Amino acid sequence: MTEVAREYIGSIHLHTTSSDGAASHLEVAGVAAQAGLDFLIVTDHNAFANGLDGWYGDVLLLVGEEINDSRLDPAANHYLALDINRHVPGDSASSQEIIDAVSAQGGFGFIAHPFEHSPPFTKEPELPWIDWQVTGYTGLEIWNYMSEFKSYLRDLPRALSFILFPQAAITGPFPETLAKWDELLLRQRTAAISGTDAHGNIYRLGPLRRALLPYEHCFKALRTHILASEPLNRDLEHDREVVHAALKGGRSFVAYDAIGDATGFRFQGRNDQTTATVGGEISLAGEVDFEIEAPLRADLRLLRDGLVVAQQRGKSLRHTAREAGVYRVEAHRRCLLKSRGWVFTNPIYVRL
Fold first, then answer.
1. In this structure, how many other beta carbons lie within 10 angstroms of the beta carbon of residue 175?
2. Cis peptide, bond prior to residue 114, ω within 30 of zero
3. Max intra-chain CA distance, the chain
4. Domains and CATH numbers, the chain
5. At 197, is the secondary structure helix, strand, or coil?
6. Are 81 and 88 in contact (CB under 8 A)?
7. Is residue 194 a contact partner of residue 254, using CB atoms and an 8 Å limit?
8. Cα torsion angle, 143, 145, 150, 154, sign
9. Numbers of helices and strands, H then E, in the chain
10. Which positions ≥6 away from 170 have C-beta within 8 Å?
11. What does residue 194 show for φ and ψ, rounded to 5 degrees?
12. Which residue, among 192, 188, 73, 78, has the nearest Cα to 131 in the 3D structure?
C-alpha cells in the first residue's frame, strides 16, 4: 500500500484548571508526553486560554474551547471550537450563532457527544446535541470516552468495578451516533474525531479516593490519528495549520489504542488514475479498488452508506467497488471476552 502522509497521534477534547479539570496546561502536556502523544487539543468549558499554544517538550499543545448555550438546562449542545484566537461567548447564544461566531474567526468545530446516556445512579445530566437544524459545523465527535464510560455506571457494584478497571466497560461508539453520522454523510462531508473528555478529577466514595479516568489512562486509551500532509517541524504556525487541516479535512481515524496500537492502520481507494485515502474523494471511473491494512488482526468491515459491503477477519481486506457512495471502515478486536470497537476511519467519498 502506498504511504501518502505522516501519521501523528493526539488527544482532543480535554479540560484543565482553566475550567473544571484537575491539571494545568503544562501538567497535561507532561502527561501526554509520557503517554506517547504527538499533540493535544485542550477545549475548556466556555473558557479560552489564549497564548498557550506551543511545543511543550515533544508535545504540540493547541487550545480550543467547548462552548454551549448557557440558557439550556441541562446544558446540551456542546460545540468544540478549534483554530480560534479569542473566547466565543455562549451566554444567550443559540447553537447556530455559536457555530457562526467560530466560523467568523476562521475557525471550525465539531459537535461534542451528540448522544449521551446517564443512568440515574450517576446523577449526571445527559448533555446531547439536540439542534440538528444547524449548518456550518465540520463534523462529529463520534466516540466520547467519558460519555460512554458513564453510561455503564448503573449501580454501585458496577461503578466501583469500572472505576478500577475501565477497560472492562468500554465497547465503542454509541450505535445511534454512528447511525447519525452515516445519515449526515449522505448529505454532506462530515469529518469524525474522538474525544476523551478527560478531567482528571478525584472522586471520593467512603474511604475510596481515586481519579476518575485519569489523564494518563485517557491519553493511552482513545486517540485520534491524523495523516498529515507534511511533517511537523516545530514551527508553531506551520504545525498548527498541519494538524487543523488534517482534522478539518477528515484525514484521520479514531482508535481505541488501549486494546492494540493502531499506528499504521491504512484505508485507501484506487482507480486507474489516482489514489485516495481517508477524507479524500475519488471518481468511480468504472470501479475503485479498496485496500485496508491493519497492524494487528481484527474483524475488518467496509461500509458503504452505512451498510457493510465486505468483511474479513485478519490484517487486510480487499474489495472492488462498482457503486458510488461514502465508504468507511470499522475494525473490532476481542478483549476481555468481548468484541470491542478498535478503529473507525473517516470516509473515502466515491463520486460519479
1. 9
2. no
3. 66
4. 6-259 (3.20.20.140), 266-351 (2.60.40.10)
5. coil
6. yes
7. yes
8. positive
9. 7, 20
10. 145, 148, 149, 221, 222, 256, 258, 340
11. -110, 160
12. 78
Q: Which residue type is seen at 38? A: D
Q: What is the dihedral of CA 77, 249, 267, 240, to 10 degrees?
A: -100
pTM of the model: 0.96
Q: What is the DSSP string of 166-208?
A: GGGT---S-HHHHHHHHHHHTTS--EEEEE--B---EEEETTE
The DSSP call for residue 126 is P
Closest residue by Cα to residue 122 from 91, 86, 151: 151
Write down the residue that cell numbers 452505512 correspond to. Answer: 306
What average pLDDT values come out for the chain (352 residues) when binned by 10 residues? 79 97 97 98 96 98 94 90 96 92 98 94 90 97 96 89 90 98 98 96 71 93 97 98 98 98 98 96 95 98 98 98 98 96 98 94
CA distance 35 to 219: 6
Task: Give CA–CA dist 318/325, Å, rounded.
Answer: 17
Within a 10 A sphere around the Cβ of 155, how many other Cβ atoms?
10
Q: For residue 73, what is the DSSP state? A: S
Distances (CA, A) of 4 to 10, 43, 266, 344: 19, 30, 10, 19
Joined together, the cell numbers standing for residue 123 give: 446523577
